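Appendix B. Extra example for self-study. Work through it before the problem class; the solution is given directly after the inputs so you can check yourself.
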Amino acid sequence: MNFLQFMIANRQQVLDLTLEHITLAGVATLLAALVGIPLGILITRVPQLSKPVLGGANIIQTIPSLALFGFLLPAPWIGDRGSRLAILALALYALLPLIRNTYAGIRSVDPAVVEAGRAMGLTDLQLLFQVELPLASGVIVAGVRIATVLSIGVATIAAAIGAGGLGEFIFRGLAMVNNQVILAGAIPAALLALSADFILGMLERRLGSLHRKS
Amino acid sequence: MTIPPSHASAIEFDHASFRLNGRALLHDLVLSVKQGETVVLLGRSGSGKTTTLKLINRLLLPTAGQVRVNGRRTADWDPIRLRRSIGYVIQDGGLFPHFTVERNIALVPRIENWPQARVEARVRELLATVGLDQELASRYPRQLSGGQRQRVGVARALAADPPILILDEPFGALDPITRSEMQKEFRALQQRMRKAVIFVTHDLREALLLADRIALMEEGRLIVDLPVAEFSRSEDPLVRAYLEAFSGLPDSTAIMRGSA
Ligand SMILES: Nc1ncnc2c1ncn2[C@@H]1O[C@H](COP(=O)(O)OP(=O)(O)OP(=O)(O)O)[C@@H](O)[C@H]1O
Ligand SMILES: [Mg+2]
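Solution. Structure tokens for the complete assembly:
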């Protein structure tokens, strides 16, 4: 049985695991964005926090993903909380690019434009939502893109704690020493990452060209 | 506390200084502008003209002395209210690159919650005032020429009809013909509106045409502050230097005549 035949024979499971994978990575990225973007904004306002926050996110990122999930693996109480834990771990990983790009994006806005906004009598919130975030949106979306691709990749390891996703094929294939089964997980995961990268990359370029400074 | 001064001055520098990192950018500035009056600020590059303007709308606070707007110290103003009552033409434009011309001009009316119909009418009116085609309204600043951008900046400053105007080389990027048109337009506008105006320029002819008074700055100090008629008769060496720099031009006689 070749790879294609395997995929067709198991199409329902491939589809289910792909959807599970998208959910894992998607929810994790969303969660990370909900925390990371406001944190990124916060550290542009309170510069003393920028070092500890960026440093903390950096440290999380340096933990090898296998090790992070490895810590979670032996916990007998995980049970069906596996996917929730996996999402949490994935979200932690995705945090750094989101915080960093939000911070860098806002900081890269031309100070003369920000000063012009202030001179016209914009409040801090108006300045943030009408000037800084729109002008930083290209860089922030780049952060979302990196975070999404990262989550899709790392989510393959989530299967180690029973969270499901395409990693199930990979781990099963490894156990069975069966390359086709490994590829049944690896190839769809790679395709997912590539398409997310492509779509968000297009959005990023659109925002970038829309808001490029004169 | 000192006794509150008379409120006749819309803008008043009362021995105001501004230091930055130990360097005095402005030193002991005394200058006042009444409602209806136009003061032109002249001075070499780096003499502190822009810094002076930024003290008025509280982008900067004086490190010594006081700056008062309508009799109240800028430090005591709500900065948002203060800034929305001052039209500011920023040197080199300072337009929002991600806003169309229409949105740039309508910025203050919109945040002041004017009704949409009034905002639209105002934008059309202002485009005409600064001599820009209505069809430019939907363009972005990067799609305009430098002179067009500059006029959008002027329109934005005028938009909410503020009682005070501070203009930092507002016509610097314009060709001589458009520039002359804008100067006439501005003069007519000022005769109607009677705002308090501080107008920065490097062009002596423009200064003589628009000013009630000319104030000359050098290295953060105000050197002279004279009614326009007396300016070209001044014996001050810096004033002479200015007049001579311009008298090199072929039509210098016009300058001298216009100022006499
Ligand atoms: N943010 C700043 N940091 C340090 N120095 C500054 C800053 N802004 C202005 N200066 C200095 O203050 C002095 C006055 O600057 P200002 O911009 O007020 O000059 P200006 O008269 O407007 O000049 P120009 O005609 O070239 O616009 C200059 O020497 C300038 O280098
Ligand atoms: Mg200047």
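Self-check: Residues B 49-50, 91, 168 surround magnesium ion (ligand 2) (CB under 6 Å). If your reasoning did not lead you there, revisit section 3.
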